[in-house]
Predict the 3D structure of the following.
Amino acid sequence: MSCNILEVRDLHVSVIKDKKPLELVRGVSFNIPEGSFYSLVGESGCGKSVTSMSLTQLPPFNQAKLSGEVLFAGKSILNLGSNELRELRGEGGIAYIFQDPISALNPVLRVKNQLLEVYRGPKKSCEYELSKLLQSVGLEKRILNAFPCELSGGMAQRVCIAMAMLSRPRLLIADEPTTALDVIMQQRLLELLSELRVKLGLSILFITHNLGLVAKYSEYAAVMYGGRVVESGKVSEILENPLHPYTQGLLKAVPSIKGTTIAELQTIPGRVPPPGEWEGCAFFERCSSSRDCGFKCQIPNVNMVTQTHFVECNTNLN
């Protein structure tokens, strides 16, 4: 029996734009070991959120064309019907925490009413159970009667975590949950997620652009660019020996202090190209190593953005 809670194999996601198919995810594959903290890393526009939302076909990607294979606890889920997908997003399945908690919460409903939409326990003890749940994420009972506009960003994100926990998921997908928070609150939330993972036996898919957070909290990671996974494996190995130029660029862009001076912050020039411009190697125009590989990455349809091909290119130069 597989020890992976999630297996994604050659996932393709495309939508129709201007009456033509536009591919947003191009052959993504990765495995999340059960009980692990797994990160999906990359800049905005690399396909991370599209990949995660496509797993359970959340709108608008319930209208997208999907191909490949996705296994959750050994069961194929890519071709499930609407009722089966609803069950998958329910108890014991896959839950989500989105990056903007205020938008994820209904502004006209109190926190208690929103939690009750997910709560499936005895009605007599619901208030006690919900209070206990909020305490587990560091919130007081009084928050039950608050509206979202009365909460800080960190408090609202903790409510979203509590809501996700109500379904007792086996896999929790946290999509940039720390983006709008200060560094102290980022640390507290990630420590909370790590504690819940150990306490409840969760598996976590953490989506981020911050390699500093990945280094501290994750065991495994996959780096995405141009709708593809360009590098994956154990975090320690990726950080110690990044193979792909994009991963190397992300690492150099992480602020650091060496001795008594602040190291010069480096950046990756340019921007992530839109999906319609992903021909050959999508990273070519921004890549500092493109000339060293003999311009092979310019050849259309050559998958330059994989560890194996990049290593082969470097080998051919010697």
Observations:
- The domain at 4-93+167-240 is CATH 3.40.50.300 (Rossmann fold).
- The first strand starts at residue 4 and ends at 17.
- The longest helix spans residues 183-200.
